[in-house]
Design goal:
With about 180 residues, the protein is mostly helical. The chain has helices spanning about 1-25, 35-40, 40-80, 85-140, 165-175; strands spanning about 30-35, 145.
Length: about 180
């Protein structure tokens, strides 16, 4: 009796695995290329443009401060031969303090830009994820995999790639069509 139990169990296991894969039709196992969705989503371009404009403005502010400091430095270099030792020390300290303030301001802005970039990128990713979830429900998919180009999906038949269809509908929804 024990000699039959193992082969029967193996046959049952093989049959159940085979039936699982048989029941999964190719239309139920689909994927989207997440990077293509991010790049092709029109909201991404709009948000990136707004972000780039804000970063450009912040950089212009820093450049203005640096230009002002450099002008002060050049004036100091011209006038230093006429200054007393005390005036030299005071002016050097003022210039060093101003340079440190500019550096601190620049670092704070860079940190703010990194945080804002993460925030807006996450917002776009959440939009895409929510859309794909609703798209999957609406179209009867059990699973929609997300390929990111780093090995999550090594191969998929072209017919299982929903990227272009999802991207088209995602952009249409964004534009209110």
């Amino acid at each position: 009796m024990n000699k039959l139990a193992l082969p029967i169990a193996l046959i049952a296991l093989i049959a159940s695995v085979a039936s699982f894969f048989y029941q999964q039709s190719s239309s139920e196992l689909v994927y989207v290329d997440v990077n293509k969705l991010l790049e092709g989503y029109k909201r991404t371009a709009i948000i990136k443009s707004e972000f780039d404009e804000k970063a450009k403005t912040m950089k212009a502010n820093v450049d203005s401060l640096i230009g002002s400091w450099q002008t002060e430095l050049k004036a100091y270099e011209k006038e230093r031969s006429d200054m007393s030792k005390k005036e030299l020390e005071l002016k050097q300290e003022l210039l060093a303090n101003k340079q440190q303030q500019i550096n601190n301001y620049q670092q704070a802005l860079q940190k703010q830009l990194v945080e804002e970039d993460k925030k807006v990128t996450q917002t776009v990713i959440n939009d895409i994820n929510d859309f794909v979830k609703e798209y999957g429900k609406k179209n009867g998919y059990k699973v929609i995999f997300g390929a990111t180009g780093n090995g999550t999906i090594m191969y998929g038949e072209e017919s299982a790639d929903l990227t272009e269809v999802v991207l088209k509908e995602l952009n249409a929804e964004f534009e209110g069509e």
